[in-house]
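User: Predict the structure for this protein chain, please.
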Amino acid sequence: MECASLKRARDNQHFKGEEMNAPVADETLDCKGLLCPVPIVRLSKTIKALDSGKVLLLEATDPGSVPDVQAWQRRTQNELVHHSEDGGVFKFWIKKTT
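Assistant: Here is the predicted structure, written as structure tokens:
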């Protein structure tokens, strides 16, 4: 079961496009193949272990990760510095600010 609507995630144009403006990630979290709530749980745990200012790249295939990461970012005040979607893989570059 997905966390959010597949249509809503596919229609979100902010998550489609090139990665050439993406920052360099200090660490990568591979959540491909995992469904809600696992990617957000792992994101929360992993970001806590990073030093402030470091960038984490989260890769997920669950379309629900799009609204989930957006909501998580608003709640935690960490910075979503870049995002993209390529071939069904949603990528989020998150800078730890808290």
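The CA atoms of residues 51 and 96 lie 7 Å apart.
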